[in-house]
């Protein structure tokens, strides 16, 4: 094996080795023994088997047909394990979903039964030409039906008002990772068969970096939060400030200014911006923009009640929004409906 091949083997095997170690952790040693961890561990396991099969076959085309069959059989479970992992993470019910177990049991029986009746050893063309296509399209089908499960997470990442949680990063990393690996294998006939294994290593370490960054960011945030906690505003002072804020916003209608910022408003109140931010976060559990937008939306509701035929552009401008899209997003977030539906109600 020349130096180039040694590098390819090393980087391809790196992700697969770490993945199988992480799989063992989630399946047997994770402190939180929940269904999602088991599905994630199983997903990493079947992905690792698929990658190891590709890796060994790339460097040894005469690889045992039995091992090839095991590698391809594992692929049948990648899509289902992805779907059930995301389903268990997004489900509000803590009860186990026995339908998922029944489906997986049926799939295990079907895959093992097919492997016994049509082994790769004696039916290589059947596996290469038909089963391989079924595997890829089954994998893709589960990627597609998994998309609605991560839709809200994508929205949360785009919306700056919502703070992305650690679990959200996990879900997005797993979903996009599986999608990228599927694309690498599906297009391998135009690139290289080893592309799937290399993409797995790339996705694995990129996800690790994202999770590390998220954890570091949360750690810094928790330190700041604790710093605030040690200097909490007294209840009387907080109530007085909130009354003052409400009075100024109601009388002077400062929220109608689209360029209103926290420092500008703090200066109007004659207090430090840090104190205003602390007050809103600790006492109201809201960001400044969220707090101001609620006043703007209340004004928008009054305008819609007074004149339902007003154009969205006019309402947005009158209430202090810079654009129609910002107004629409804020309105839906505050009222859980659209301006048009609100008028109908």
How would you portray this structure in words?
This protein is mostly helical and 345 residues long. It has helices at 3-29, 35-59, 65-75, 78-90, 98-117, 124-158, 166-186, 195-229, 235-252, 262-269, 273-284, 288-306, 312-319, 324-335, 339-344. The chain is elongated and about 85 Å long. Residues 219-223 have low confidence and may be disordered.
Key traits:
345 residues, mainly alpha, 78% helix, 0% strand
Please give the structural blueprint.
Elements: H1 3-29, H2 35-59, H3 65-75, H4 78-90, H5 98-117, H6 124-158, H7 166-186, H8 195-229, H9 235-252, H10 262-269, H11 273-284, H12 288-306, H13 312-319, H14 324-335, H15 339-344
Helix pairs in contact: 1-2, 1-8, 2-3, 2-4, 3-6, 4-6, 4-7, 6-7, 7-8, 10-11, 12-13, 12-14, 13-14
The sequence of SSEs as H and E is HHHHHHHHHHHHHHH
Largest sheet: none
Unreliably modeled segments:
219-223
Average pLDDT for all residues:
82
Classify the secondary structure makeup into a structural class. mainly alpha
Question: Distance N terminus to C terminus?
Answer: 72 Å
Number of helices: 15
What fraction strand?
A: under 5%
Number of separate strands: 0
Q: Helicity range of the residues?
A: over 70%
Shape: elongated
Radius of gyration, taken over Cα atoms and rounded to an integer in Å: 27 Å
